[in-house]
Amino acid sequence: MDKKYQIDSIENIRFLNEIRKNLVDFGKHVVAPDGTAYYLGDDGSPWPNFNRDTYENARMYHVYGMAALLYGQEWNRLTDGLKKGLTVTLRDRKNGGWFDGLLADEKPKEGKQCYSHAFVVLAAADALMAKDTGAEEFFNDAVQCFDHYFWIEKDGMTADTWNTELSTLDEYRGLNANMHTVEALLNAADASAQEVYRERAGRIINRVIKLASDNEWRIPEHYTEKWQPLLDYNKDHPDDQFKPYGATPGHGLEWARLILQWASSTFGPDHSDFPYYCNAAENLFDRAVKDGWHADGSPGFVYTTDWFGKPIVSDRMHWVLAEAINTAAVLYRVTKKETYASAYAMFMQYLDTCVLDHKLGSWFHQLNQKNEPIDSVWPGKPDLYHAFQATLIPYCPIHLSVFKAVKEQLYAEGIALAH
After folding, report:
1. Residue 141 pLDDT more than 80?
2. For 139, 301, 392, 408, which has the most beta carbons within 10 A of its beta carbon?
3. What would the pLDDT profile of 16-37 be if each residue is shown by its tens digit?
4. Which stretches of 293-413 are DSSP H helices?
């Protein structure tokens, strides 16, 4: 196998550097005049007739904040604009919190989502670490809003959806928002040194491990207000972007990595509790690969399966591959098992062969079973976040959030990623 797919080879590092720099260049037209993030087309050009989502705004701030640290302060022209989108345009000064985004006619979207607010917290923590202008106020506003409306202390989990006025809370509870809450809380803890955020992330993680282990490591995604699983939720809409029916192998992969990050930052690998969390991460990874990878006879991860591991939606989503790359690398760092290094190389080869768009740039966001680009769920290429992080996480310290690692120039084995 080509050395550029093999973890810790100089060829692999150079390959990831090339991909990362191309991603940064691909998204350079993302900022609208009001600071919101344009939906990006197949060639990176803005699609102004699409919604502009708050979570994408925050993700792009996250990406270009790291780009500025890696490649120079000229990329702060994008973060300055995107921060305006988050702190001014998308802030609901009347009702509180953040709008979920803007519609094509620039009217605010209805509802307030935990998913979006988790990414606002992520971006605000980035701003605090970068010592951006107004970062402390941004961070305090973001975490106070999240604490008040989305964190449910008695459950140790988050709520999901409010109405726009923040007067009515939907009964639905879901793990997708909780997963990105864990990511945001770990970033907030690293940014602020307030360990309450790491403790909350651990409460979510411990509950998810129990839910997953009780279901053969296929994670139930959807729940009632009292956290009773809704195993048939969205059965009539199985390819939903955020709340699909059945098990989502990509989320098993993502949870596995977040568990290892939390356990590494909380206990460290030599602590007696660490093997429990490492074992959970390995079980989640192994289940996701067994159910999702090559499951229908073709390379790639299927999007969803039923509760017995049978593929439901065979389309391949780029973010699943990104998380597979990350988690294989992190598991290899923790366990030193060659099976994870081999998996990493296999995923990297698939990325190069099928998912990288070598003509127009970025990654194809959706492929069919034949690994042909399609756009039934994800038209265009609006999201750099998953792909960008997959070029960094394999070489960053496991116990740190990726922004913190980039900020402090802490790379595995002293490798400077920017060069």
Report:
1. yes
2. 301
3. 999 999 999 999 999 999 999 9
4. 318-335, 338-350, 385-390, 402-407
Active centre residues (catalytic): 251, 386
Residue of 406, 335, 364 lying closest to 191 (CA atoms): 406
Residue 221 near residue 176 (C-beta atoms within 8 A): yes
More confident residue, 239 or 383: 383
* Res. 411 pLDDT band, cuts 50 70 90: low
Residue 188 phi, psi (nearest 5):
-65, -40
Which amino acid belongs to residue 207? R
> Taking the C-alpha atoms of 204, 209, 212 and 218 in order, what is their torsion angle to the nearest 10 degrees?
90
> How big is the CA angle at 248 (ends 243 and 252), to the nearest 5 degrees?
120
Give the model's confidence band at 15: pLDDT under 50 very low, under 70 low, under 90 confident, else very high: very high
DSSP string, 17-28: HHHHHHHHHHTT
**pLDDT band with cut points at 50, 70 and 90 for residue 241:** confident
Please, which residues bridge with residue 108 across strands? 102
CB atoms within 10 A of CB 414: 7
Centroid of chain to Cα 182: 10
Identify the burial level of 114 via C-beta atoms within 10 angstroms of its C-beta, where 0-12 means exposed, 13-18 middle and 19 or more buried.
Answer: buried
**Structural tokens at position 92:** 């609901």
Whole-number pLDDT of residue 414: 41
Alpha-carbon gap, residue 143 to 244, rounded angstroms? 28
Torsion of CA 385, 84, 186, 211, to 10 degrees: -70
Residues composing the chain: 419
Q: What is the pTM of this model?
A: 0.97
Residue 229 bridge partners (DSSP): 223
Secondary structure class of 40 (helix, strand, coil): strand
Residue with tokens 């074992």: 279
Q: Report the half-sphere exposure of 386 (CA within 13 A, side-chain side).
A: 23
